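agent> call fold_tool(seq_1)
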Amino acid sequence: MVSQGESNVQPDLALLLVAASRAVADALQETMRAADLDEMRSSFGFVLRALGDGATLTELADRLGVTKQAAIKVVDEMERLGFIERRPHPADRRAKVLAATERGHRVRATALKASRRMERDLRRVAGDADVDALRRALGAFLDQHGGLDEVTAGRARPVW
């Protein structure tokens, strides 16, 4: 008899992907705490990536695939915490350009460093061939189910 919590069955792919996503989010959150960026939330990371060199609220919402109302809530909080700022739009007096502050750029650099460290650690454990195969498989999965273009452009749609 198999006790609760034990199983002879391999976890399904969806469960593995969700658990991996959670593990990455947890590792990034711990990295932010260690860098004295305790206020950082995973949703902010999506915004910082989507901003690129700057964007209007409408452009940001489009890049994230969310409504302007959803985007403004996160933008307001990120501005209050000093991760982004609103700057005058060079061609439209009524519009503002959202841009990462020095603190926001520090978050991006810290997260990228952590991501590279996670991959290096996995390569040590699983080997280059398996990690390369995992990257190809995830790329094929995203190509099949949508999202590869966003990832290739360095963005991902938020899950908030």
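agent> call fold_tool(seq_2)
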Amino acid sequence: MLRCGASLVPCQLISRATDGVKIKMSTIQAFDLRFCSKLDKPVMLRLSRRLRGTFAARRALGRSLVILALLMTQSVAVTQESTANQKPVNVMNIKLYAYNKLSWDQFQCYNWLIHYESRWNYKAKNGSHYGLGQMRSKWYGTLNPMRQIDVHLAYIKHRYSNDACKALAHWERKGWH
């Protein structure tokens, strides 16, 4: 806990800082065994008045910064590892999913409509419009591509009587659907 130019970060704070971050327990346990036994002593945690501004105080502050840097490095590495495990979505799989929901003629119109709107990029953003169908909802942009297709087809069903060709014709006339 850094206070009044204080010395070290107690290990209780370290365990709180790692809440919500998946870190291998062996790493934390090794960290706890090596450092926490030395750092959690009351003598190390309080800074007497005679130490303020001295080399010992700067050394203690340096130690706490090193500990925080180690924790930050570990949490960044874990975050990068978790995002690296996500597989990219193939556009052909998204199109196949849409094709299975529609007839061939309807799919042709839907294919052109989505191509014009987002180029089949489910992460597309244009102002306040998001996703495959460029719908005006942040929630829609957070959905996975298959769910975006389901929601967009429900919109087409409601607005254009379940006819993607009518939606395409409207887009060609007005520039939106």
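agent> summarizing second result for user.
DSSP finds nine helices and two strands in the chain. The first strand starts at residue 125 and ends at 126.
agent> awaiting next instruction.
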